[in-house]
Structures are given as C-alpha cells and as structure tokens.
Design a protein that fits this description.
Elements: H1 8-15, H2 19-32, H3 49-61, H4 67-74, H5 80-89, H6 105-113
Protein name: HTH_Tnp_Tc3_2 domain-containing protein
GO molecular function, one term: DNA binding
Domain Transposase Tc1-like: 52-114
C-alpha cells in the first residue's frame, strides 16, 4: 500500500491498526529496509523451562498448594499470575478443600424435619 501511494493514516484505516504502529513500521522500513519484527522485543522470561515444569508438577501432585508456597519452593521472584498461567497451560485448575460436604436434597429434607 505504501508503494501504491497510500498515506499512513489510510494504511492504518485499511489495516485496522493504530496510526503510531503504521508510522513505526513505515520508519523502520525506510531506515532499515525491512519490516521484520526486531529480535528481543518480547518480554524476558522470569523462569526457566525446568522451573516451569516444576510448577506444573507441584500443581499436579498437590492441587491445594498456594502460589506463595510455590514461590518459596522455587526460590524465584515471580508474580502469582505467572504460576496461574503455567498451571492453566497444563489444564490444571486450583482446588480447595471442602469445609463441609455439600448436602443432597434428601439430607436437606431430613435436616428440616429434625
């Protein structure tokens, strides 16, 4: 679209992108001659693959373990969202212990009669 003579705003409107994203891409293309994504532009990893596996293993072995306990066991300063994300990627959900068993309709009726 650039070579066809479209403006930056026209390209942004057609591509459903922000103006600043098109301008940054435009400038990168004219300065560097490429529109490829720059290396190292992603967020840096706070955990290694081994620590990721360890998080998943802990969640699998003990579903009631807390995020703070996992952080202490790993010895890595990570936020609880990181642990939740790794567990969600492994299709593990947090489980809480029951404080009381749920009552069936029959139990409720017997309790009301009592």
């Amino acid at each position: 679209m650039k070579t066809a003579g479209c403006s930056k705003r026209g390209i942004a409107g057609q591509g459903n992108r922000l103006d600043c994203a098109v301008i940054n891409c435009w400038e990168q293309g004219t300065q560097e001659g490429t529109y490829a994504r720059k290396t190292g532009s992603e967020a840096t990893r706070k955990t290694t693959r081994r620590e990721d596996r360890r998080i998943v293993r802990q969640g699998f072995v003990d579903p009631t373990v807390t995020h703070s306990t996992m952080r202490v066991d790993l010895g890595v300063a990570i936020v609880p969202q990181t642990i939740s994300r790794h567990l969600a990627e492994a299709n593990l959900k947090s489980k809480r212990l029951f404080h009381a068993l749920p009552l069936t309709p029959e139990h409720r009726q017997l309790r009301l009669q009592w």
